[in-house]
Input
Amino acid sequence: MGRRTLQFLTALILSLAVVTPVVAAPTFTDVPESNIFYDDIEWLSVMEITQGCNPPVNDLYCPNDYVTRGQMAAFLVRALGLTNNGGGDHFTDDDGSVFESSIDKLYTAGITQGCNPPTNDHYCPNSYVTRGQMAAFLVRAICLTDDGGGDHFTDDDGSVFESSIDKLYTAGITMGCNPPTNDHYCPNDNVTRGQMAAFLRRGLDHAPPKVTGVVATTNGPDEIAVFWDASSHLDVDHYNVWRSYAPGSPKTPIVNPWVGPEPTTGDRWWVVVDGLWDPGYECFQVSAVDIAGQEGPRSSEACFDFVPGAPSQVTGVTVGTGGGSGEAYISWTPNPEWDVDHYDVWYSEFPGGFYNYESEIDGNVRDGSNRVYYLDWPVDQTVGKTCYKIAAVDQSGNEGALSGETCFSAP
Output
């Protein structure tokens, strides 16, 4: 069996291994897949917003239990990554509560004012959260401002939470509490832990951010590998890889890409076996997809490049005269990168002046150990005038940084 065939079979086996469905067991034994809030609660667990309701075992979630205001503080603090407690001890009725630190952080973030206006020196950590209060918590937490014209429900007229409820509806975080009519919000009903998971996920589960660091290069004989930075989004489920055969062209998705290493660690890659090996073509984009199926924006386009990135800056540039007929020339040290295709020559009519593109010079033009470009005759041979800069360009069309300025000197 040839090496190329072996590589293909290896890639195929690994690809099939990745796409074989694996049915994960539910995180909590009291939330089976049949539970209406299963996906929401699983998301809450993946995002490390909940550990469970029966420590230290924590194999239960208690989806039908009502949420207390203390628990709500903990959920929101973990979901939002709040760390500042503003010095602590903002309320008099939470001393000794396991949730006191979270309550202080929630207060400092401006998400709660208290439960006994206008004094508001109490938080009421053991009271249950109502649907009206949940609306206020979320509106402040994610800074919702649009009420969509207001008055979306008939049972919250006069409620202190009506404005927050309307903003929650407009943001698509609630539909109502009496389907299919859904003209009621039930602002005074207590919120269950299952319902709370749905509220939080709708309000906070955004699509993954744009993938960065995409590079398409070689991964061994007859292979192209697409690399990218691992997403920091905790609930990324997989990545989509998109391909075209010309820069800027519409891309089609790759079916079942071989993606590794393990999710949420390191960089990812997808191996293209038997690529066309055409530098500057075979272009790729990558997007992250979360466990809810939300796809983030695609990355910037990255086209195949033998040596990723632009060539290094050209050095050793000299400008003078030489040869039997006294030709004027530019000489520079060869760029060591093996995928350099050519060099661009730029010139100015005086030091520090505006530089114009002069010519593209084959990368193999050489005189001994240096590249040499013979200038058109005649040239201005005044010392210190007619200045040049050189840049290396690789086979993918990436131009490196221009060299330092070098001006004509006497022989």
User: Anything to note?
Assistant: The radius of gyration is 32 Å. The longest strand covers residues 236-244. The chain has three domains: 38-204, 207-303, 318-407. Residues 1-23 have pLDDT under 50 and may be disordered.
